[in-house]
């Protein structure tokens, strides 16, 4: 029984029996892409949150062309090149104080694998080889490779199928206190985290978290105070703190990095999605001196044994440099603030939406907004319906969200939120 499709392309997360032919995208400009049919769709998701400058940004396109004429690729084993060196210096400059070392890889999942291996080997090199487990949070999503699946939410996550295949790690409850919670409200989240650390710290190398915004696991928006408390607990229990800023990095929560809201430096931080403005896959795992210096030593075991073929790809590094330059020169944090204002006004402050029987909660943080429903069925067909309205929406489970490109203009942002609301209120 084969699917009734003509293309051999196997699509991600697709049910082969019920999927329909995917529309073919032939181009894009700004916040919109164009289909072969001639339809133009306003992208509310900026292609899984990475196309932060929208499509066909002239400066990014020019950067690829220029770099392609100079050097498309060379191995980073034993060699280096200007874009890799310059980007590493730039990432050290813009990330929280103390993250001084940059390990490149080719995707967010691999960037997290690098972080996890680094954390385990760090403890091993310090003679603490019992610390070889990771502590993760419920509702977490860290990627689709085996190591990453094992630290995704073990119940709601789509990876429960592989439970028998994966290593077992301890989990702490997902934080519940919202972004603007009072310290007392965050205290019980931190008490729960402490309790798990007290029980498991002797075997835990690192605490992993998506700071402030647990994205694919249901857009759970949490408090900066939780990050501060987690930092203190990690120091107390000799556990490294790893921030997975693959989704939150580069402005998504309203600051350059989620860590900036809390003034916290994690020991290891992972960047990907927005890193290249989405134009090529790439990732960076940053580490502090403390982590890095543990690898300075005389034995063969001191080498960090990881090296993806495409790490530090010159095209990707050059794109990332251009992306960062545009971000800073064109005041993207200001643009994100404007988007946030529109998202609050049109979604958060909509009284009708808040009391709609299908709606459990509406949340907004930075350039991210979500309408959480009670059941997945509440969103059945929303993607097709939105397409008829000229908007590309792709919910995750019970969550109808937007993470627009930062160049999305107010008129288009309002168009996106009015279509999201209309699904509930005016269909
Ligand atoms: C998307 C995502 C990943 C995985 O990145 P890929 O590039 O898809 O491998 C990891 N962590 C978070 C928080 C993500 O949102």
TrEMBL record:
The protein's required cofactors: pyridoxal 5'-phosphate
Metal-binding among keywords: no
GO biological process: biotin biosynthetic process
Enzyme class: transferase
Binding site for substrate: 48, 141, 273, 307, 394
Main location: cytoplasm
A GO molecular-function annotation: adenosylmethionine-8-amino-7-oxononanoate transaminase activity
Family: Belongs to the class-III pyridoxal-phosphate-dependent aminotransferase family. BioA subfamily.
HAMAP family: BioA
Function noted in UniProt: Catalyzes the transfer of the alpha-amino group from S-adenosyl-L-methionine (SAM) to 7-keto-8-aminopelargonic acid (KAPA) to form 7,8-diaminopelargonic acid (DAPA). It is the only aminotransferase known to utilize SAM as an amino donor.
Protein name: Adenosylmethionine-8-amino-7-oxononanoate aminotransferase
Annotated source species: Halomonas lysinitropha
